[in-house]
Fold these 2 entries.
Entry 1:
Amino acid sequence: MKRVVFPLFLALLSATSAVVAQNSASVLEPRGKAERKKPIGTITPPPAGVLPKRNLPVAPAAPSQRETIIRSTSLVKVNATSQGYNPHIPWQKESPGARRGLGVVLAGNRILVTGQMVADATYIELEMPESGQKLPAKVVAVDYEANVALLASASPSKEKEFFASLTPMTLDTSARIGDSLSIWQTGRVGDLIVTPMRISKVMTQGYVVENASFLVYEATGIVRSEGNSFTLPVVKGGKLAALLLRYDSKNQVATLLPAPIIEHFLKDTDDGQYDGFPSLGVELQQTLDEQFREYLGMKGGMKGAFISGVSKGASADKIGVKQGDIILSINGFSVDSRGDYQDPQFGALSISHVVRGRAFVGDKIEMKVLRDGKEIELSGKLLRKQPADYLVTPYIFDRGPNYVMMGGLLFQELSKPYLQAFGSDQQSGAILRLSRIAEHPEDYEKEGRRKLVFLSAVLPTPTVQGYERLGGQVVNLVNGVKVNDLNDLAEAFKTPKDGVHIIELADFPKLLHIDAVSAERDNLKLVGGAYRIGTLKRIQ
Amino acid sequence: MTKHPLLLASAAALLLCTSIPARAKDEDPGASQAIDTNSGEWEGIVNIDVSVLMPDYREPWNAGQPSGGSGTGFLIGKNRFLTNAHVVSNATKIVIRTMSDPEPHAARVVHIAHDCDLALIEAEDASHFEKLKPLTFGGIPKLNTEVIAVGYPIGGERVSVTRGVVSRIDFRPYSHTGVDNHLTIQVDAAINPGNSGGPVLQNRKVVGVAFQGFSGRVAQNVGYMIPVPVIERFLKDIEDGHYDHYVDLAAGDFSIENPAQIKALGLENDGHGVLIADVEPAGCVGGVLKQGDVLLAIDGNPVLNNGLIKIDGELIDMNEVVERKYAGGKVKLDFVRDRKKQSATVTLKRFLPYVKLGLQYNQRPRYIVYAGLVFQPMDRNLMDAHSIRDPLTSYVFDNYMTKKIYEERPEVIVLTNVLPDEVNTYLTGYQQSIVDEINGVKIKTLKDVKAALAKEDERAGFIKIKLLEKGRPLVLKRELAEAAHPRIMKTYNIREASYLGEE
């Protein structure tokens, strides 16, 4: 199996909890700044063998409790240390933080956790809930959009012994609205704490990163965090039905990452080549408004949703879908006026699940659309737009942001994590301009830009005298060369004109000059000097 | 920065006057002088009590919110009182009272200049003030010389005198519009709400008009006055009976400090020349200067690399040369382009797109309501009143100048509201969007909206409103919209379907 290396980011998690925890007033998973700290109620695992007396598992407070202790042999504790890069100081890592969760044992000595659990991980270990026995682990597959990851032992010598007493759990994808599920947590001594939940709603929404929406179950019930809160299994009849994605304690609503998505992920990883979830790349609008329907030529009870946007290079674009089309059916499912289809298991559901949940990259896609009053059939293959294919990188995990430093001028590729690290307060000036490019990259993509390169900051060196307060300007040309990504920029800096680098910006003050020799001299000082940059560029 | 114009809100303690600042017998600016309120000499410093109607940019068909305030003014000529524009902005009723006489005298605005926050008012009946002695102007006071501020600030009803020194002379933003920068003088005499429009005196001569300060949480003992050059410019501008506003080069400059930049631009390394980083094509140097030019001198006055020039021995922003001129005046520019020296003379004019970015006053909000859809032109007042959060609309406002959006859309029209009715119930949720086209007509001004709504779309019987970057058009059946329109007007108590401004 191949480890999927997505460009990654942590800033989304650490910068704005509001963005991550979309509709939950409070979340069970500690996020935002709190992520750096231990979750409330976390029990620091005592070193094996030196348990203080009061923590002895054989001394429960109430005798009756001992009798009811049940255990599961399919759960292990997962402890991960994570450390992301600072989006604004890209050569620097933030302080490490701990995350704890429960992993589900799957066949083949694999452990399933959420992607969030292992994002930017520096060290991962598995721990037996009862004995405290530990095993170093590694990520063998991860999808940060679908928020699932598969772990395996990182220590071949200890693997067999560790897994000997564990039994794999299987998936149950049959859950539907009204079903009762239970969230499993482990107590201090490995005892199982079971919380009942009932599925009240099934829909699609974004998980942790924003650029894709997936199937979720919403379940109601009261969950008390036992500390292992980053990943919790949700079980139906002894089988894994979902993982807990977030919990809104105010409304007592848990959002669950459902087994069908987990199954899709596991199937995809089976062949050793992970393709990810396909996407359609359309934006839909309802056609409930009679006047709009009449205008569009939708007769009588005709169903279908208005396509208000088609993402460049995505599946829909490739098969010829146009903005203004009305989608009537997809892969045999009729589309209603809200953009939903009737799922045999879940009822009305966004058509995004037809593509993401029910199909794989490379599968055939068939769509029927109404265009200029005529029905037309379109078909082709389903694709996936990789994070690297976006002008503005949607998320970055497990690596640092790309940058080029030249004599004190810091250039970066624009990414969502970079913008999100500013929080929601600074929505004017350069941040507003850059945010808009992130929302509407079309014009820049048309220019042939692959990434948006901008001057993000200026470190005060003699070379950049007079430019210290700049930041946020989009780079157009350097030494006469069009800058379509950081590679172009690095190349362009090899050919100064008469010993001077000429940097042309899209924004005020539009034109900068720096001395090429002086810049090289300052580069050396930046690497070793007070700023300890280490390396002058990162282009991955 | 929380700069506040120093108009005293009527809710707070205000107005009324009696005592008078003293006559200064001693010419030594450092000496303190006793005040004789009966001398009559200071009787020309008056309290101005104003009733105001704040225009309502949210419900633009409404008259607005009545309010009031109080400030200070002073006699500068026959029945001519100088005060701040912000004291008498949006006024519906103005009365003045002198120090020794509580009788209110109705007054009216003669000229008002929002861009430099000055106004000239007169009493409706001049007879009462005929015998009063006008105050006279001095010049720019030196740093660390003493001044007194006289007026009717918060903290009591009678006249107040505060004393301090001249702390700084600088180019600063004028908070009344928020976008204009002129010469200001900072003093450490306490200047508080209600001082606005009052004189700041040195040796019995007016050296400035108190007008703004910082909130106490931001800075202490920082008050600002409008200095005499700005006042004189205003008074000269209105001599012809009309205020022509400030003129502007409408170009952005960037300091040339970097040795590589000096070398690459072919400049002599003598500390002169500022980079022209941005030129407004519609401004007075549009087509004359180009981005990348280096300005060496303005009217023969050498420009330093940070954009400063020397006037009367003081370093000051080069725009001061332009500041002191009037619409139609000329200015000579010496600059370097492609390493060659060139000269050009440009005729100065006001730069209008700028005005929309600042707060505007004494304007009735313009709008069109049709079938419950409310269209309004974008400006600062609208952005504030509607607390615009739509990212595109905020972006367009923020970059109206920097991205030259004004060239494509002289007026950006915003669908500010949808007043719910059966006919438009599916369109609620599109508020705050920018209107791109109506019935195929590109919308560049509010008047275009009216004409375009009347026009037939290519799909007969429909009205199609295309919003900027919203993916789908808003569609109304004309027949239904026409029927709903009068009903909505009645329901929401709107008496006029539009106000397009004075013809």
Entry 2:
Amino acid sequence: MLYVIICFLWASIWLYLLLGGADFGAGILELFTSKGNRDKTRDTMYQAIGPVWEANHMWLIIAIVILFVGFPVIYSTMSVYLHIPLTVMLLGIIARGTAFAFRHYDAVVDDMQVLYNRIFTWSSLITPLFLGIIAGSTVSSTINPDANNFLDAYVFSWLSFFSVAVGLFTVAICAFLAAIYLIGETNNDTDKKRFISKARIANIAAVIFGGMVFTAAWKEGIPLVDWIFGNAVGIAAITAASLSLVLLWYLLLKGKTKVLRILAGFQVTMILITTTFKHFPNIVILKGGGHLSLMEHHGHDKTLQALGMALLLGSLFILPALFYLIYSFQKKTAAGTDHHH
Amino acid sequence: MNDFLAARSQMALSLGFHIVFSCIGMVMPFFMAVAHYYWLKTGNDVYKNVTKAWSKGVAIFFATGAVSGTVLSFELGLLWPNFMKHAGPIFGMPFSLEGTAFFIEAIALGFFLYGWGRFNKWFHWFTGVIVGVSGLVSGILVVAANAWMNSPAGFDYINGEYVNIDPIKAMFNDAWFSQALHMCLAAFAATGFAVAGVHALMIVRKSHVQFHTKAFRIAAIFAAVAAILQPLSGDISAKDVAKRQPAKLAAMEAHFHTGKKVPLIIGGIPDESTQTVKYAMELPGLLSFMIAEDFNAEVKGLDSIPKEDHPPVAITHYAFQVMVGMGMIMMLAGVLYLIGLWRKKRWLESNWLLRFFVICTPLGFIAVEAGWTVTEVGRQPWIIHGIMRTADAVTPMPGINYSFYLFTAVYMSLAVIVTFMLYRQIKMVGKLYDITPASHLTTH
Ligand code: HDD
Ligand code: HEM
Ligand code: HEM
């Protein structure tokens, strides 16, 4: 059952990165869109993600619930030492979620929209930035349970070159996913071109920030290179990702949307695999070499049994419904039925 | 403000904020389903407009409820890491099931909000019902988790270790049923009166009377039935509390001295230092009767409980009085309305009844907040009743007061914006729904 639960944990992080990531990315793209085109970007985005919007963010909650029920020590350690970035991320989630709803459901369209949009776009950037920082700090040996002053315990636990680089990388990935996704959601050529060029820029940014992650890892003594290139899975995944990148650029020229989506999703999946495979099951690496391991720091057997059953049972209900939701709206948008305002 | 107090206040603030949205998220889908049903059956467009107007409001509330709930699931760890480290695996069962319920709710909401004119109409209607049912289920599940904190079960506590854990037993603890029942009714009563009150106001002002009358009636019937059942369920809760948390009951009733033939105290100012209650109205023997159905039964007072285990008496007592007081007023409104419905049709058009409902608009939510204050403050100093103290659970991180100020500012602004948007929504009713023909409304 432990393995079932770990699979669910991994899958919910993965899906959150893909679906939630594309969702954040749409806001980031809007932030970096020239004023004239913003309305169009917004409309495309709303049509594309509106119906599944709420569901995308459930994956984060599932991951958190799995952590606090199944792996309470890991959850509470992260909550204590990463309190500050978690709080910032939460504020980002609040701001983003409410601004998204407000701007579409406000009965009057006036100056308030400017405020909602500004809040929405900025929080779309900040939230994944801090998610990345949190992810970075879990593996960068900066969490220090023996620290005896505020800065070491609660600030330098997450504020490092490496973590910030991971944060920026995450932002670029989100923007990339969104741009690729949105290419397939527009019906006219100029918009398609716009999203294609955005996908390129985001991709270049991701490569630059990726380089920054490696540099930071090297400077701060994090064996990232070893995690990725020190084992067959890592090498295979990173090679696959690089090869598919070439293919992706080629297809971008052609504008083949379905394949593009699959490729982009594939790349992000590969990146997540390489970065999690080598140090599995140690999901938090502490200062001084200590680890918090999924295989050791888990709850009691009965708890895991119950949690696993709940997850399996839940997916029996959820997955078909979710697929049907995505399927029906894909079909209808493709047919170009009604338009929201 | 010290860190411990700040953490408690931040928790209370976040929960107090979330509960408003979750009540609405649990109940409004049912109201919409009724209006929607009438529309599908009768083809009367006013019902369609009511459904659509409500669904816009619900979308706003739902999003706010969802983000504030997400915040809560992190806050449990951010503020009470030591509690979660031990309690997580024990009381986590309802949370893991709740994940499913939320997910289904979110999916069904996607279908419902974006599905106008896209699906078979009864399928579309059904997705709205699913939103309501899964919301209600998730509410019941979270309350079961809270009930576990009041009546811990499903583990043995031996030498400071939590052993023999059984998450299913933990979920079905002694308090879950009475709390869940009371909470569900409270959600219907609070949301019902709030919605009915707003529509009543518009009727009194003679604005779009047809629209508001239909909306009012749906909300008012739910509200009235729930408000009449509420005191009955409250009685079950009180008997239950007397059994498992005598300290909480004593604080609720400001009952300091153990004794027989204990009076029920109404109002009054409890003074913990002198252990007396000033200016209270006493109904002889009634508390004994309510707890044990015997006017002479003994009821434990605070003197039978060690001083360090006393909850704050005054807050708990006042909060309890407020809840019961509001409950009585709402019950009266409910009874009058139902009499009007069955016997005295002309009451329904009369201004005094509508005005009464206008006054009742906020009462349900005041009662909900007060009721949770009773439950949570009355549990102090324990976070897990009799097992772990709240003070031992708090995060070691200093500076929580800043976090509290920040969240206060955020929640305040959100409350202001949501209120403002709701106000606009209501003002726009005429433009959006009443006058324009239905063909204009196919989008939202
Ligand atoms: C519309 C809201 C509302 C109304 C009218 C009432 N209540 Fe209530 N009450 C709640 C809303 C509420 C609540 C907010 O939902 C609580 C908090 C925890 C819970 O389970 O329900 C609660 C808790 C609560 C508790 C504590 C339960 C516990 O700690 O386990 C008791 C003893 C009562 N109530 C009793 C009553 C009585 C005797 C009422 C008579 C009129 C009453 N309530 C009306
Ligand atoms: C939504 C309705 C709820 C409201 C309005 C509410 C209110 C409060 C209040 C006022 C406090 C502070 C008590 C004090 O420190 O004096 C508190 C504390 C707390 N509540 Fe609740 N509560 C609610 C539901 C829940 C639920 C469902 C849970 C858990 C499953 C929960 C968990 C906690 C925890 C962990 C604390 C902090 C520890 C403590 O003070 O005992 N609450 N809540
Ligand atoms: C008595 C207390 C509570 C009740 C009745 C309640 C009920 C609900 C309901 C009905 C929703 C759906 C959102 C909506 O319709 O607006 C919701 C959302 C949520 N609640 Fe609560 N809740 C309570 C307390 C809590 C607590 C203590 C937590 C966390 C520990 C929590 C976590 C969540 C989460 C994560 C969501 C978002 C789910 C989504 O995206 O739909 N809730 N809650």
